[in-house]
Amino acid sequence: MRVATWNVNSVKQRVPRLLPWLDQRKPDVVCLQETKLADEAFTALLGEPLRERGYEAALFGETQWNGVALLSRVGLDDVAVGVAGAPGFPHVEARAVAATCGGVRVHSLYVPNGREPESDHYKYKLEWLAALRDVLEAGPADAVVCGDINIAPTDADVFDPEAYVGHTHVTEPERAALQAIQALGFHDVVRERWPDERIFSYWDYRAGMFHRDLGMRIDLILASASVAPRVKAAWIDRHARKGTGPSDHAPVIVDLDEAPDGDIGPVVPPPSSPGVKKKVRLPQSK
């Protein structure tokens, strides 16, 4: 079973990329984030093309902002939207949808950004993650957590740790919240498979960050202790970030039980840039 997660940053804008990508990579389960469409609009836009490709869809969307989806061609049972006990900001946002697909509980998540350390949105992010941990602890043993987690797990997951000082995504409380989820038995399968590689999933649109390979790894697939041993390949589909009209995120792909493309490396294709040669400031810091 091939499981993928992708922050598409507006599914309406990404249709010319999404449908060919589904045909190329043939994922069995797809978690989408930042769909930015209400459920009715999503269905009107993509319902028929997805049915033609054999996908059922579970949706939790809202107009203009947020929005998550879960596409499956291996079953879609016991659908749940939202995270029980999670706060809103101030109202509940469309950030989580879960279902059982092929016997595995799959969570498609768009974790709050946090905006600035110690801001109200940052506190909301930490409370949201704590509620998510409780849901996962009470959930079935066979599970995967997929999505834009908006946390770089370690300094190795950003192009330059010094550039991120004073910013969200890398603070100790955020990383501690992620570690609390992993402590339930969830494995960061991409990093475990490629412990020493330079791997990113997000590159800012500005300042040529993608072409210089100045990114972050904030899109994750975490597999429970019973599912992690089934992983045969785990990689970032960097090709989907190239070309015309891309999202600023690349898909993460994990193959369970068999790997149709083989164990092809951590990032496909690998970046041509050698990485950082001089100090770089984040575009938002300028």
TrEMBL record:
PROSITE patterns registered for this protein in UniProt: AP_NUCLEASE_F1_1 (PS00726), AP_NUCLEASE_F1_4 (PS51435)
Keyword set includes Hydrolase: yes
Entry annotated with the keyword Hydrolase: yes
Assigned keywords, A-Z: Hydrolase, Magnesium, Metal-binding
InterPro entries membership: AP_endonuc_1, AP_endonuclease_F1_BS, Endo/exonu/phosph_ase_sf, Endo/exonuclease/phosphatase, ExoIII-like
Basic residues bias locations: 276-286
Origin: domain of life: Bacteria
Cofactor field: Mg(2+)
Region Disordered, annotated ranges: 241-286
Domain Endonuclease/exonuclease/phosphatase per the UniProt entry, residue ranges: 4-249
Record family assignment: Belongs to the DNA repair enzymes AP/ExoA family.
UniProt name for this protein: Exodeoxyribonuclease-3
Organism: Lentzea atacamensis
